[in-house]
């Protein structure tokens, strides 16, 4: 663009200038803004799809001080985006309560709250990049903030976790180098405890205990469980006409 003649101030450590190319900018030396620090317009023509933006650059970081408000009823001590598409972070990580975020969003020392809008509902969406991607929530108790690092333990619930890339939903546990799924729900609706491939609506690999009666249907195979009433009817011969059951006794018994 055309340079309209810069107005340059010379504070300690740099200069402030304005021209038709960059607008207002602050840099180390007069001329083109360096990568160290400046406030200026980005490159590009002022036309559709290439509109310029305001850029704030400082090599050692930027701090926004919102103050503490000016009294009761007018506490505006925050940074607000009043229009546009909102706040977007295109690189790096965001830390709330921490200066060294270990993930894209790292919240330390507080809670996360989701309030639904009127007429809608609150929702957390975790979306993988492909059908084979693992997506899960992790609940951890560790000393260094890294689940599965050898300290502490963690539980996670999610899709395709623990290398079960089949669309199933699982609950798993990790402690040091030991990890694995403890419960699985398949895409067909089967639930497995102790198995990642349940073949029944409820498939338990191990023993189970019930403190109340277990209700089962009429057995149709030798491996099926039976109710007390069904056993009584078969052993007693049932009601009405028909054949009686044969009772076989091995050894000495008193009937």
Rg: 34 Å
Secondary-structure element string: EEEEEEEEEEEEH
Q: Give the assembly state of these chains.
A: single chain
Low-confidence stretches: 1-12
Structural class given helices, strands, pairing? mainly beta
Termini Cα gap = 110 Å
Helix content: under 10%
Q: Specify the biggest β-sheet.
A: 6 strands, mixed
Outline, from the CA principal axes? elongated
Q: Quick check: average pLDDT?
A: 77
Beta-strand residue percentage = 15-25%
Strand order of the largest sheet: 7-8-9-10-11-12
Number of helices: 1
- What's the count of strands? 12
What would a concise description of this structure say?
This protein is mostly beta strands. It has one helix spanning 228-235; strands at residues 15-19, 23-27, 37-41, 54-58, 94-96, 105-107, 135-141, 153-159, 169-175, 178-185, 191-193, 202-204.
Describe the model.
- With 255 residues, the chain is mainly β.
- The chain has one helix and twelve strands; from the N terminus they run ββββββββββββα.
- It has one helix at residues 228-235; strands at residues 15-19, 23-27, 37-41, 54-58, 94-96, 105-107, 135-141, 153-159, 169-175, 178-185, 191-193, 202-204.
- The protein has a six-stranded mixed β-sheet, with no helix packed on it.
- A hairpin with a 3-residue loop joins β1 and β2 (23-27).
- The longest helix is centred in the C-terminal third of the chain and has 8 residues, at 228-235.
- It is elongated.
